[in-house]
Design goal:
The chain is mainly beta. The chain is 10% helix and 35% strand.
Length: 262
């Protein structure tokens, strides 16, 4: 890891020098408590850093370490039915480790590294695959079959693939690219949050979504794949509407993102 030294602290903004080889969007660890931060701007060897935790007690002279990696999320089995904070730290796991109050600098992986999942191969040895092709499936819940795909930036020929129970970091398949380089694939991928995931095609909304609320379905119908907004003043019931949609909508997966008051 590359190290620098803090020269200025202003609330969540930290300025550090000595990070000439760091890049914008790199994740850094700040101070002795290793607070999580992200580089917002680089000017020479000086980095302006947004710290995502309370910076009390951090001052000039403290060490900043750059991980050399951008802010990323972990994608794989185990995301469903979990609760995360804004930088994908699993809150139930944190509570088990440090209690109800999140300690500064706590470092817990987003996906459980110990839980094993039943992997069923779909691809076979000799298949030529590219980014987005499915190599196998995991029955993540009783209703959701999780498809494990080749990372978007990778392609090649399957040289080995196996079935059985694995953790998200264990190798389930190996593919060989055109340069005869072999790549091990697990059920988990890391993806930078500031880079859009690629897609082959976007479908235009064409069917209504049954929200379970008759007044919405009658007067303000929502399309599957569409969007809706609920404007209103304080106490008007915006969050209640969100909760009702989350409970009763005719959908397979609900991702609830709470930001602000609640």
């Amino acid at each position: 890891m590359m190290s620098g030294t803090i020269t200025k602290v202003s609330g969540p903004l930290v300025v550090a020098e000595g990070l000439a080889d760091a890049n914008v969007s790199d994740v850094v660890r700040v101070g002795s408590q290793r607070l999580i931060g992200e580089i917002l701007n680089m000017t020479g060897d000086k980095a302006s850093i947004q710290v995502y935790e309370e910076t009390s007690g951090i001052g000039p002279g403290a060490v900043v370490e750059s991980t050399g990696m951008p802010m990323s999320v972990e994608l794989g089995p185990g995301m469903l039915e979990n609760i995360y904070d804004g930088i994908q730290r699993p809150l139930p796991e944190i509570r088990e480790r440090v209690g109800s109050t999140i300690s500064r600098g706590v470092d817990v992986p987003a996906l459980n590294r110990e839980k094993k999942w039943e992997f069923t191969p779909v691809a076979k040895v000799g298949d030529k695959l590219s980014g987005g092709d499915v190599i196998g499936t995991v029955q993540e819940t009783s209703a959701i079959l999780h498809k494990i795909m080749v990372p978007p930036t990778m392609s090649g020929t399957v040289v080995s693939i196996q079935s059985g129970t694995f953790t998200v970091t264990e190798t389930v398949a190996v593919i060989e690219d055109g340069n005869k380089v072999r790549h091990e694939l697990s059920m988990m991928q890391k993806w930078p949050v500031r880079i859009n995931r690629p897609y082959a095609k976007k479908f235009m909304p064409s069917r209504p979504m049954n929200s379970g609320q008759r007044i919405i379905d009658t007067l303000f119908p929502i399309a599957k794949g569409g969007t809706a907004a609920v404007p209103g003043p304080f106490g008007s019931g915006k969050t209640v509407v969100q909760h009702q949609l989350a409970k009763w909508s005719d959908v397979d997966i609900v991702v609830y993102i709470g930001c602000g008051e609640r």
